[in-house]
Prior knowledge:
By secondary structure, the chain is α+β, with helices and mostly antiparallel strands. It has two domains: 3-200, no CATH class; 216-314, no CATH class. Helix content is 36%, strand content 25%. It is built from eleven helices and twelve strands. A ten-stranded mixed beta sheet has the order 1-7-8-9-10-6-5-4-3-2. A two-stranded antiparallel sheet has the order 11-12. β5 (105-111) and β6 form a beta hairpin. α10 packs across α11 (298-314). The two termini are 35 Å apart.
Amino acid sequence: MKKRLIGGIVAATILIPTAAFAAPTPIEMIMTAEQVKADEVGKATLEKLYSAFPETKSFEIINASSAQGDVPAEKAKLMDPTNSTNLKVKQTNIVLQEKGGTGKKITLHTNGITGEIEHVIQENWEPKEKPLITLTDQEIKSKVDYLIDKMYGNIEEYEFAMEQMENPNQKTLMLNYIKKGSEAPFYQVFVQGNTISLSRIGGDPTPSNIKVEGLFSTNGKPDYTADAYLNDEKLFSLLKISPTELKQELAKGKSVVEIAASKNVSKQQVIDVIAETQVEVQIQAEQNGEIPKNNRSKEQMLKNIEPKVLQVIEHKTETPW
């Protein structure tokens, strides 16, 4: 098993939830247990947890908060061209602990925009006499597999890799679960002491509908960030352009919006086409059991995906995301 150096800042980055457009200085508002249960995101988060681990219904909510951050105006404008002010985003954090017993604790960080539980921290679920990190690698993997399976679904399709980090303070294991065809992990897990810290990163493989890869470039290298959004047959039809031609136009430094304008296609038409495809893909994945159902209407899902679509179609090659 390989060893990799891990610094405090890197570890903290993994364990601290970050929304896609999170601000450097989020404002955290404390929530009571009653507020969590009344809040739409908080209630849905608890329902997912209780369904996964029924025993947690008896746990106490010992800490909860709603973290809000400002998206700088220049980035907010990518989401809404009419917006000239900072845009706020929201994330809900809930900590539950067992009453008495071993003091089992579980922390959930939920993206308030998508409703997805992005981070799960499970503490003290093993006896203090034999903490998690003292188990064999296979036993640890089994514990992590179980947590992911309960919170997110079956993981049989994922490739697995485990590494021991060179943490000077205490033994730390990193477990990556990667979908075939993907370079980034879909789930990344750190195990320390008696704690499992799980992050749902979402590194998807190259979809079968990808026509051209690396539509943008960053530092002279292919950038695959927007491929899953722009490789859209309906978009190609709308713009009357082939995938290869689109890539060539983007390479000239144009944005999709500018390319569309040259063909008398409005920005909103582009947004509608891409958003519709993305939501259809998500709904199909939910129906197939590939991802958990979020119980949101199609209209809400379309609204939620628009900020990312706007960011993609306004983007220009060799510029920061």
